[in-house]
Predict the structure.
Amino acid sequence: MALKILKERIMRDGHCLEGGILKVDSFINHQLDTRLMRQIAEEFQRRFADLNVNKILTVEASGIAPAVILGCLMDLPVVFAKKKVPSTMDDMYQTTVRSFTKQSDYSLVVSKAFLTPADHVLFIDDFLAIGNAAKGIINLCQQAGATIEGMGFIVEKEFTHGREMLQEMGINRIESMVIVESLDNCEIKLKE
């Protein structure tokens, strides 16, 4: 049911912008449809029920909502990688990521207190495009000695091949709620 509703919302309220950008800010990453977000989190919970995870990891800001709702459902702590180094954080893992949407670099940081070799991580985010944010999370987990058990995305842009890159990096469990086949001519085509 969540997938059907999500597809309908993308087709009705999503907008294609130049450069292969899908704008879903009216219900996913600016204004949130909380009922839909809960349904998405419930579907992630179902899909990842067989994994042995003790922590959910995401990137600020758009990944926080689905990750927190999933954390509540799975009774797990949620850690979000920050995009700016806080003045109060001095012992951290850090990596640099290239933004697909903004075409600029930014730092991702996680406190060493919240990501350890004992952690079995489920990464949740809003989009999988070329996979740069996920690649940054992989780097942070490698620095910490943490294990990534799976990755979940609300929307995957299949035509940007991020999934293939993540699989080449050893991520075998990737779940996407909706897969966009194409945004050619600013027409949204979803995979059935």
Notes: The beta strands are 15-17, 21-23, 55-59, 78-81, 92-98, 105-111, 120-128, 147-157, 174-182, 189-190. The chain is about 30% helix and 30% strand. The longest strand covers residues 147-157. Helices lie at 2-13, 34-47, 64-74, 132-144, 162-168.
